[in-house]
C-alpha cells in the first residue's frame, strides 16, 4: 500500500508537491496527496479506495503521533536547560495574589524556554563536530593527519604547525570569539594571527622575556607580562601602558564581564586592575610563595590559583583572604582548568595525579594517575591534557567519568607548554618549545555562536557597538562571588535563635527524668547497698544537670559584664553616680 | 572513521553586499552567558539611573490669567482643551498642545470657584462668588485647531442668579443635570433658571462636590463643618455623612472603581474611602506637608494627583501610602487645582502665581513617536526594574527625590511631631490600666463619627 502510493506520488505535479510539503508530516502527506490524485482520476475503484483511505488515515495518525511524541520529548529535554532551575512551588503559598502573579511568571518562563528550545532545534545552522570509531577501531588510535585528510577542505586548513625554534616556548590567548590569537614566545616574540584567514595581523619583538599574553575584551588590546613589568599594547604593536605596580608578572587573566586584569607576580601577589579606569582595584598577598598557575572560572569570574604546596586558592577582588583554600594535591600544582559550566574543576600536580573537583561541594570526584603540565576544558567539555610531547584529549562518558577520546604526539623533544581550545572551532592550539601547532579535535567547540555574545565574523561596526554594550554592562568587582546566581534573590532565613529560658528548663527536666528512669547497672559486689545506690543516682543526676548549670553561669557572667559596660556608657552627667554605686557594692 | 568538524564558510555568515542587512545568529545557551544575573542587575541599576537622568517632568507654563487660578475643568470630548477659572472672574480655554489661550469667557464679577463641562463636551458650567451660575457654549474643535488665535470671546448661553455665593460645580456624568455647592447643594437643569431641588444637612458651607462616574445620581460633597456627605438624587434627603477631625478640601471618585473615592484633607493626608463602608478609610496617603487643596484621578484609576498648599504636586498610586512622584518648581506657588489629562499622560496644575503648569505624568517618559526598537528597550528596562526593584540599591535610587529645603525641613519637623505624639501615647498607654487605651489604627484615627 505504502509503496504503491510512493509510486503514484512520482506523477503528481511539482507545484502540488511544494504546496503540501511540511517537514513533520512528510511521509503522511505524500500518501494523502496520492490518494487525492487517484480519486480524481479513477472513480470506479472508489469503494476499495475508501477502505484504503481509512487504513491510510490510521497510519498517518500513527506516524504523526510518534513523530510528535519524539519531537516533544526532545524539545522537553532541551527546554530544561533554558528553564534555569526548578520553578517556584506554588502549593504552599497562602497569598492568592502572589500565587497568581508567580503562576503567570512561571508560565512566561516556560514559554520563553520553549521558544529557545525550538530555536535550538530548528534554527541552529551548524552541527557540532564528531569523531566516531567503526568496528574495533578506537577514536584515540586515529592520527591527526588522518583526521585532517578526512574532513572537509575548510576544516583541514585549520590544522597547522608554526615552527619557530629560536624564540619558544610559546604561550597564546584567544579572543572571546575565537577569531584572533595572540602568541608570545618566551624570548620576546609577540604576534597576532587571524585564525580565519591565517594571516598575521602584527608581529613584533620586545627583546625581553615574555611570560604570558592576554587579550582584553576585543582584539584591539592585549597585555603582555614581560621581564620586569606588564605592558598593554594595541593591535598595531604600540605600547599604550606600562603597568609597573604589578611587578614581574607570571600569569595574566582578563575578567571579561568586569574589565579587570588579574595578575599574579613572582612574589605571589595577586592584583586586579580595572582596565577602563586604570584604577587598581585590589592587591593581595597570597602568602603561599611563587605561583604561576592561574585560571579564571568563567562561570563566576573567581580566580583560581595553584600553589607549590599543593593548595588551590580561589579569590575575588573584594576580599583579602581567599574564598576557598583547598589542599588538592601533595605536590606543586602544575595546572588548573575550569569547565565552562562552572561546577567542575580539573587540577594536575607534580604528584602525578589529575583530579576532578565538584565546586559545589568542594569534593574530589575522580582521581587519575597521570602527569600533566597543562590542562584546558573546551566549550563542549572536552579536557586537554598536555605532558611532555604528548597531548591527550579526554571526553566525559557520563557522570564526569572522563576517558580517552584522542591522543596526539608532537615531534619528540618538543615540550608542550600550554594547550588551549579555540572557542567556536574544533581546534586545539598547542604552544610548545618549537613554536605553535594546532590540531583538529572534532566536537570540542560550540558549533553555533550568538552574534550578540561572541561573533567570529564581526565587522568593525559590530565590534564598536559591542564594546559600548560591554562597557554599559560592565560589572562592579563586588559581583564576583562563588555563586553568582544568587544575586537578586532572597537571603535565606536566619537560623533558629537560641532556645528560651523556658525551653532550657524543660530540657533540663527531661534530662533529669531520663537519668532517674534509667535502669540500674548490673549488681556488682559491694555496690548494691541502698546508700551507695542513692548516692550513685544523685551523682548521675548532677552529671546530667551540669552542662545546663554551666551554661546558665556563663550567661549570668556575660550579663554582669554587660551591666558593667552599660554603667560605663552612662551619660556624662550621671557618671559620678555610677562610680559611687560601684564602690558601694 | 566517521568524522566531522565545525566548518563555517565565510560567505554563509557574512552579508554579500554592503546594502544587505547583517546576518544575525542566536544561541540561547546559558553557558555562553556567564554571570547573567549580575549583568541583569547591572542593567537594572543603569535603567533606574537613566530614569533619573531623563526625569524632566515640567513641560511648560501657561501664562495668561492675571489672578490666582482657582479651578479647572477638562473637556471630556476634546483631549487638547482645558478650562481654567481665576480669582478675578476670568475663564479661559487652553490648547495644551500649543499652550495658548484659545478662547475667553468673560462675565463673572467675582472669583470663579467652580468649572465643569458636560460629558458630551458642548456646555461649560461655571459658578462663582458673584452668586451666578453661567452656562457657556464650548467652541467646537475646528476653533481649537485654528493656527491663528483670534482671541475669541464668547457670550454665555444663560446666566442664572441665585441667593448665595457658589463654591463648586460638577456636571452629571450621564444626563443634563449639574450640581452646585454653596450654602446648600443645589441641583440644576440646563434649561431651568432655578435649581430643581436643594439639599441641606447642617448649616455650614459646602466647599466641594463630585458626581459619581458610575452611578449618575450619586454625588459626594465635603463641607467646612469637616464632613463628607453622600447624596442620592433619587432620594429626598442626603444618604450618609462622615465627620472627620479636619476639613476635606476636595474629593474625587475613582473612575475605574466608582464605589471608591479619595478625599484631600486639610491635615496633609488623603483618605481613600469605600462609599459603602465609611467607618474606616481604605487607605491613608501621606506625604504632603501642608493642606491638600485638590485631587484628581487618572482615567486609568491606578493613580491620582494632588496639589497642596505646600507648593508641590504629588502623584500617588491608588493603593499606596506614599507618593511615587513629587513635582515642584521655584516659581510655583500654592497649588489650588490639579487635573490629569484624559489620556493619563499629563498633569495640569493651577496655582497662586496665576499660571497653569503642564507636567508629564511619568517624569522620565519619552514623548513623541517611539521606534519599535526603542519601545522594546523601554519595555525591557521596565521589566528589569520590576524584577530587581526590591533590591536596596535600586530602591534607593528609584525613591530618591530632590526636595526644596522648606519641604525637607517641614517633613522632618512633621516626623518629629508625629513621633513625639506616638511616644507620648505609648507612655500613657503603658501607665494606664491595660485595655483602657486601645491602639487606634491610622485609618480610623481621624474619623469622628458616621451619621446615617
UniProtKB/TrEMBL annotation, chain A:
Residue ranges of WD repeats = 326-367
Q: Which UniProt keywords apply?
A: Nucleus, Repeat, rRNA processing, WD repeat
Start-end of Basic residues biased regions: 518-530
For the region Disordered, what residue ranges are annotated?
518-562
Q: What is its main location?
A: nucleus
PANTHER family hit by this protein? WD REPEAT-CONTAINING PROTEIN 46 (PTHR14085:SF3), WD-REPEAT PROTEIN BING4 (PTHR14085)
| Protein known as | BING4 C-terminal domain-containing protein
Q: Which organism is it from?
A: Papaver atlanticum
UniProtKB/TrEMBL annotation, chain B:
Alphabetical list of Gene3D superfamilies matching this protein: YVTN repeat-like/Quinoprotein amine dehydrogenase
* Principal localisation: nucleus
Q: Which CDD domains match?
A: WD40
User: Where does this one sit in the cell?
Assistant: Nucleus, Nucleolus
Tell me a GO biological process for this protein: maturation of SSU-rRNA from tricistronic rRNA transcript (SSU-rRNA, 5.8S rRNA, LSU-rRNA)
Q: Which residue stretches does the UniProt record annotate as biased composition, category Basic residues?
A: 442-452
Q: What UniProt keywords apply to this chain's record, in alphabetical order?
A: Nucleus, Repeat, Ribonucleoprotein, WD repeat
Q: Where are the WD repeats?
A: 62-104, 105-146, 199-241, 285-316, 328-369
* Sof1-like protein domain mapped to chain residues: 361-447
| Classification via SMART domains | WD40 (SM00320)
Q: Does the keyword Transport apply?
A: no
Give the similarity note: Belongs to the WD repeat DCAF13/WDSOF1 family.
Which named protein is this?
Answer: DDB1- and CUL4-associated factor 13
